[in-house]
Amino acid sequence: xxxxxxxxxxxxxxxxxxxxxxxxxxxxxxxxxxxxxxxxxxxxxxxxxxxxxxxxxxxxxxxxxxxxxxxxxxxxxxxxxxxxxxxxxxxxxxxxxxxxxxxxxxxxxxxxxxxxxxxxxxxxxxxxxxxxxxxxxxxxxxxxxxxxxxxxxxxxxxxxxxxxxxxxxxxxxxxxxxxxxxxxxxxxxxxxxxxxxxxxxxxxxxxxxxxxxxxxxx
Length: 218
Known about the structure:
There is one protein chain. The protein is mainly alpha-helical. It has ten helices and two strands. The protein has helices spanning 18-33, 36-52, 83-93, 104-107, 117-126, 129-144, 152-158, 179-191, 199-206, 208-215, and strands at 69-72, 113-115. α6 packs across α8 (179-191).
């Protein structure tokens, strides 16, 4: 940096590639994330962005949209986001192609706010009956056996739970449920997003109480 001088830049036909800038920024994020000290620096940057983000949304409940996230995490209304919690979020998403830390408050909003009733209803409407029945009657009972959601391997095992093919709670004629279809339904309920960090990782970060409550919305 000490050798850089703006006067050395060629001013003719200058082209700025946003894609390249984002790539360099992502490499910087990955290098920081490789050490505990770097992760904490990233968490502090995210905290600054969260402090300036409009996470509380409109005061008028009627103005709430399907994309709006409302109640804060942790549960206490108006509670400040815990630094250690943000650290866990950053550690979970750093491998998820994130290039701009300022996008965390929007792209990963589900880590910090609950879905509005409208969004929950929209998500529920997209779930296939077999997926909803499997989550409600097979996956959730297995998750309930866990004392907490700290062990991602145990969580992943629970997500493989299935109902017997002849279970009357499954829709008539339902074939074997594919794991990818179940995981997509789980992701929708947990995050409202079609892609992101591994499901077990998301559940571990959210914690048992929040994750189980969201899955129960099926």
